[in-house]
Amino acid sequence: MTTGFWRASLLIATTQLGLLARSRRAWAAACLLLLPAIIAWLVAAANAKVTPSGLSTMLGWYALLGVSVPLASLLLGVAVVAEEVEDRTITYLLLRPIPRAALFVGRLAPAVLWLCACSAVGTALLVAAAATARGSDAGVSDGVRLPLLLAACAGVATYTTLHAALGVWVKHAMIVGLAYSFTIEGFLSNLPGRNQLLTIQYHLRSLVAGTGDDAWQRIDGFGATEWNPLFDSGLVLALVVACASAAGAWRLARRQFELPA
Amino acid sequence: MNPGTEAAPANRAEMHGGAWRPWSGERRPSRLRAAPIVRAGLRIALRKKLPLVLLFLPPVVATIIFSFVVYTVAALAQGMAPAGLGGAGGAMGQAMGGAGGAGDIVKQLVRVREMIVGFHLSTDFFSVLLMAWFGAGLLADDRKSGAHLLYFARPLTRFDYLLGKFCIVAAFGVLGSILPGLVIISVAVAASPDWSFLQQEGSVVWKTLLFGGAWTLVVSSLVLAVSSLSTRKSYALAGVFAWFMFSGATALLLSRLLKDRDWLALSPVQCGVRIAEDLFDMRLGVRDWNTPLAWTAWGLVVALSWTIIWWRTRRLEVV
Amino acid sequence: MTHASPAPVVRAKDLARFYGDVVGVCDLTVDIPPGTVGLLGPTGAGKSTFLKLLAGELKPSRGSIEVLGAPPFANPAVHSRLGFCPQQDALWDDMTALEFVEFLLRLSGFEPARARKAALVALERVQLVDAKDRRLGGFSKGMRQRARIAQSIAHEPQLVVLDEPLTGLDPLARHATLELFRQLAAEGASVLFSTHVLHEVEALTTNVVLLHRGRLLARGEVPAIRALLDRHPRRYSIQAREPRRLARELVELEGVEAVRIAEGGMLVVETRQPERLLEALPAIASAARAGIGAFESRDEGLEAVFDYLMGGST
């Protein structure tokens, strides 16, 4: 008696979702995504000059997209497979009559879902907190709200899939992921020139630029940067997700794990 | 008469006090009870060669480059062509503002000091990497493997345990932050005429020690605090970097949003820049926020870190 | 009329598995028949590596292995008929015992109602049904071991592979677990379990596979292996105040083949008639005023058995 790919994926995903809700790691990731909202609320309450759109764009751009999204995704993405290996519980899953790729998909999907939900809540709270700022401007428009939501969700999906695949391929995924987040996403994405194209951060920003309004112009270098068209960046992100999923599933189907007793 | 043996029937068990002798020596506990922890911790850390090479390579390369630059500047200030530059010394000397006069030498010595400060600030990142890598697992791994039970089963106080762990992280901070600075200062002293660098800029030595020591204390405390909150080294490592990233981004953002540079005090790295500016009496561009606030912020980080560490290790003792 | 021997459940040919420079198993060629088989060997013999290869957790570095007629690595067809209880004490601590077994049964293709029923039966068999709704994280070491055994037998596999299944169990639970293995065998399942304790195997089966330093040392019935051992003289160590005087007396004793004084003044006696030695020793020691301080057999440990089989000496 064997279990098919989709059925196994669904079974693992539903169980994993339940476990996620009880996991400290998932809540830590959620807190990371809520942090910009908390900062926005504190700043809005403490300072009378800061404006709603200024607060939401600056915190959304630098804190949410630049720091919270990559870090929260790293925290949960790496856990998709590497945590089971570290906990040595992967044996139970690998020795069941299921396609191994289902294990990857089944554990990745709840992580992405969870992070998407948290980023949606985080974005909504950030915008709500920024809206309470007392500085006078046009307020937080849909041209700020929706691009931020879109980029945050696309960001967690892409980063999480990438880090999940990394967790299957390399032994110290968290460390490699941290190095990647720092050097490529943190450093390269802020260098001028076309090197930015190599980073996910650039494509997320392109999503914002493609759907956002003039409120984003207050970000340093926003107007001077040549952003990718919306469709192109969306396509690049979708391709990264597809390739990382395929690479992770393919590797998991072939990889053996040497677990200590 | 011993009451225990007086009425003992023949078939009852006896105590063989002669065979079991209570220990009657004098117990002389070492004052350096943390030393074995430090020794063992360093030995374990130094066992894996690849991380050592990868993490020490950047500071070593930076030290060599800065040493060479400092030597070149000092040599040019005396109108000499430094070895390795061939006959380019004269031209280079002119390009760097001429050479030979006493005023020029003083100017060049100030430049050397600036270079040393620049070196400190540019290698801070690598010292954080070193301390985070070798310190992140110190408390987290003990917690995970239950090794703390072995520690606390010995005549070891919580203070000894934490001191030992702190010294391990701090050792890497010293190696990554203070020692390279001292090497460059030594090069500057040796290369300056009649050790004039020591006479003119001698205070750089203690300032380097103070700045490096304070930076090591802040980062080590932070690393240990995050480690005490985690159950795995990788979590702790992520936590340390998350903290640095978040505090840096938030500090920059708030200082820009609210147009108040005091917000930079939220970031230990920015505090470091400010403190270095003040300590070495230099102008790096961020002078308009107050130094006491930067010192206070560092102090708060240390105090908060040790409160967390103390609280978490108290819990370790009762596990 | 000829009796065809049943097809082996495990067939390894020139099987080798290396961890870098370290040998896990090497040149292992063995057929394991259906029934209950004990896999014996001292720590580091390669038992766990062999079982992991057999369960499909690891791939062979060289050679091949077939389980129930097919290579086990990433093979759902084999895994649906195989139950594996790993040695590592790793469980999903946030799950309850029932959730744990039920989830793995669902992955094995069981429908929800059937999975629930089978999970309860398995937990009943390992005497965990009373703790079925408790979190695994709160279980004792023995309970965790039983939960692992439960998941390995719940789907009624044709072959149950257990890596050190009796570790961490108290004597009562150990007895119950051995009884469970007997029942499984009676129900027609093949049980292959590893241990380094000889008498645990003897309590359950006479069919053993002995591994040593990653190689096959012996395979077959325990009496046959015992017979191999009996060809060697038994050795005893005696610590005496006057070892030379005692040696002089012992060398005259019937069956004693050699007497020598080892390091530290320990007397080592080799005899083909151990009963005779044990019977006569008190009188001899008393007559010689040898003052015996300690006496021990050097052949009781499994390591000594392996040394004999390897032709070495300790």
Topology:
The complex is a heterotrimer of chains A (261), B (319) and C (314).
Chain A: H1 5-21, H2 24-46, H3 52-77, H4 82-87, H5 90-94, H6 100-131, H7 142-169, H8 173-187, H9 200-211, H10 230-254
Chain B: H1 3-6, H2 35-47, H3 49-77, H4 89-95, H5 102-145, H6 147-152, H7 158-191, H8 196-201, H9 203-229, H10 233-257, H11 268-279, H12 291-318
Chain C: E1 10-19, E2 22-32, E3 36-40, H1 47-55, E4 62-67, H2 76-79, E5 82-85, H3 97-107, H4 112-125, H5 141-153, E6 159-162, H6 171-186, E7 190-195, H7 198-202, E8 207-212, E9 215-221, H8 222-230, E10 234-240, H9 243-250, E11 256-261, E12 267-271, H10 274-287, E13 292-297, H11 302-310
Parallel strand pairs in C: 3-7, 3-8, 5-6, 6-7
Antiparallel strand pairs in C: 1-2, 1-4, 8-9, 10-12, 10-13, 11-12
Helix pairs in contact in C: 3-4, 4-5
Written account of the structure:
With 261 residues, chain A is mostly helical. Chain A has helices at 5-21, 24-46, 52-77, 82-87, 90-94, 100-131, 142-169, 173-187, 200-211, 230-254. Chain A has one domain (5-254). Chain A is built from 10 helices and no strands. Chain B is an all-alpha fold and 319 residues long. Chain B has one domain. The longest helix of chain B has 44 residues, at 102-145. Chain C folds into 2 domains: 10-228, P-loop containing nucleotide triphosphate hydrolases (Rossmann fold, 3-Layer(aba) Sandwich), CATH 3.40.50; 232-310, 2-Layer Sandwich (Alpha-Beta Plaits). In chain C, 36% of the residues lie in helices and 26% in strands. In chain C, a hairpin with a 2-residue loop joins strand 1 and strand 2. In chain C, helix 4 (112-125) crosses helix 5. The longest helix of chain C has 16 residues, at 171-186. Chain C is elongated, with a radius of gyration of 24 Å. The relative contact order of chain C is 0.13. The chains are: A mainly alpha (261), B mainly alpha (319), C alpha/beta (314). The interface between A and C is medium-sized, with 31 and 32 residues.
